[in-house]
């Protein structure tokens, strides 16, 4: 395992971007390159800072309040009376915890939601709110978050490639001004 992998293994994998990086892996890379501080991950909290300090041989420092606080992650909740089924919240969710499709009400799978809050800004009618997790239910583990995020990335990359291929095919089918249109 290289250093980036070892750092990444200590991060909670919510992909929330509160550290100021585009997910856990980019933050791990910046830490390995000595470009950032070890105290920028609110979901990892004090325990995470301790683990990073031990691995990287750095001094213990408190969580940077500019990144957020170490509160228990809530879960997203969609107000079914207000949801217009636009599906804009699907893509930003790094773990595909929201189910629904165009013109249908959407809902959050509480057991998969890691509380990253990335869906909130995507909703044009502000009908997603964060709530405390139901008592007794734990947040997903880093391993679960990582596995779901990898599935999400594979799926979204495949969709992007398929879309690009379809567009290229359609462009090829557009006749030039001198060409007759095919029937
Ligand atoms: S979980 Fe921590 S390291 Fe990962 S994106 Fe959020 S703040 Fe950054
Ligand atoms: S439902 Fe919202 S808060 Fe929950 S994991 Fe997905 S984007 Fe994050
Ligand atoms: S973005 Fe908001 S309105 Fe659109 S489907 Fe998601 S929850 Fe419903």
Give a structural overview.
There is one protein chain. By secondary structure, this protein is mostly helical. The chain has two domains: 65 residues, Electron transport complex subunit B, putative Fe-S cluster (3-methyladenine DNA Glycosylase II, Chain A, domain 3), CATH 1.10.15.40; 89 residues, 2-Layer Sandwich (Alpha-Beta Plaits). 32% of the residues lie in helices and 7% in strands. It has four helices and four strands, in the order αααββββα. The chain starts with a helix and ends in a 10-residue tail after the last helix. Bound molecules: iron/sulfur cluster (3 copies).
Task: Compile the SSE list and pairings.
Blueprint: H1 3-8, H2 24-32, H3 45-56, E1 75-78, E2 98-99, E3 107-108, E4 128-131, H4 142-173
Antiparallel strand pairs: 1-4, 2-3
Bound molecules: iron/sulfur cluster (SF4) (3 copies).
């Amino acid at each position: 395992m290289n250093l980036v992998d070892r750092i990444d293994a200590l991060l909670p994998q919510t992909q929330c971007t509160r550290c100021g990086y585009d997910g856990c892996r980019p933050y791990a890379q910046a830490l390995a390159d000595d470009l950032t501080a070890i105290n920028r991950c609110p979901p990892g909290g004090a325990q995470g800072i301790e683990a990073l300090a031990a691995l990287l041989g750095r001094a213990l420092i408190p969580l940077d309040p500019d990144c957020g606080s170490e509160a228990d992650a809530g879960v997203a909740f969609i107000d079914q009376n207000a949801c217009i089924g636009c599906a804009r919240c699907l893509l930003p969710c790094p773990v595909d915890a929201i189910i629904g499709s165009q013109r249908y009400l959407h809902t959050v799978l509480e057991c998969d939601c890691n509380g990253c809050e990335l869906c909130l800004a995507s909703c044009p009618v502000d009908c997603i709110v964060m709530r405390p997790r139901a008592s007794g239910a734990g947040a997903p583990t880093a391993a679960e978050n990582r596995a779901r995020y990898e599935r999400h990335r594979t799926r979204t990359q495949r969709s992007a490639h398929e879309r690009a291929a379809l567009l290229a095919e359609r462009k090829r089918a557009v006749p030039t001004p001198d060409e007759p249109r095919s029937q």
